[in-house]
Amino acid sequence: MPSVALREPWQDLGHQRNSAVLGMWLFLGTEILFFGGIFAGYSVYRFLHTADFLAAGRETNIYYGSVNTLVLLVSSFVMSLGSRAARAGLFRFARLCFPVTAVLGMVFLTLKGFEYNDDLEKHLFPGASGFPLPEAGAGLFWAFYWVATVVHTIHLTVGIGAVFRLQILSRDDPQWLNDSPSAEVTSLYWHFVDCIWVFLYALIYLPGRS
Amino acid sequence: MTPEERHRIIAIARAPSLVLLGLVLLFGANLGLSFAALGRFNLVANLLIAAAMVALIALFFMELIRSSAIHRLAAVVGIFWLMFFFVLGFADYLTR
């Protein structure tokens, strides 16, 4: 009897897995261009307003940013373990890794929420009354900060949902984790969101510290 | 958990653990270097270290190191187009 994980139009699980992984990589290619637009805009404006961007970068909260970076790196490690365990047939361990990954994602979102609150209390929102930075380019930096981190947060939220999906769909049939490409594909998406944050951390939190 | 399961978990965790260690060390280096007065080379150092971290994640966590050629090609295509994007974008601003 064919596995319940096998979907139309594929005839075997191996072909389905290869196609799903290829599809995810192509999707991530579009995501690279999507975030690339934001990064390109940032780069041009930083080139035009270098000193202003350094002054604005100093106002970001490096403690929240650094802790959140570590949280995401550990979450990627745990997700990697989960994906490998699913492939190796270690389903109990895989089903332990996925919720830990999702919880780490939620820790990130919680800390980000506290950070946003902190930023708003300091009026670090471009265009709002009381924006404390006089430099012309500082508003551009903070516009980038809000757009990029909110878009990243939305991606992470989708990732948390996708990880919980693995947990729910494998509840009655753990073998599904091995048959279906879902664990591998979800893992790719999760790591990609982590990669975006690694660059955001370097561009948002580290400028202007020296 | 049986001893055999434990043994297999340790085996699959070995490589990702080393990668995590590398990532944390690179993260520390990036944070530390950002406080060093390197002038414009701060940005270069920060981006190079971030790129090294992303390379570790892509190669080992996303397992590009053991992927098929078609998957590697699809992964590189996005970066290839991004390069065009940046080169053409900056060709304007750098030559004004």
Second-tier CATH architecture of chain A: Up-down Bundle
Task: Note the gap between the termini of chain B.
Answer: 66 Å
Radius of gyration of chain B: 19 Å
How many DSSP E strands of chain A?
A: 0
CATH topology of chain A: Four Helix Bundle (Hemerythrin (Met), subunit A)
The total number of structural domains of chain A is 1
Number of strands of chain B: 0
For the largest beta-sheet of chain A, the strand count, sense and barrel status come to: none
CATH level-1 class of chain A? Mainly Alpha
Largest interface in this structure: A-B, 50 and 50 residues
**Mean pLDDT, all residues of chain B:** 94
Tell me roughly what share of residues is in helical segments of chain B: over 70%
Short key terms for the protein model shown above:
heterodimer, A: mainly alpha, 7 helices, 77% helix, 0% strand, B: 96 residues, mainly alpha, 2 domains, 81% helix
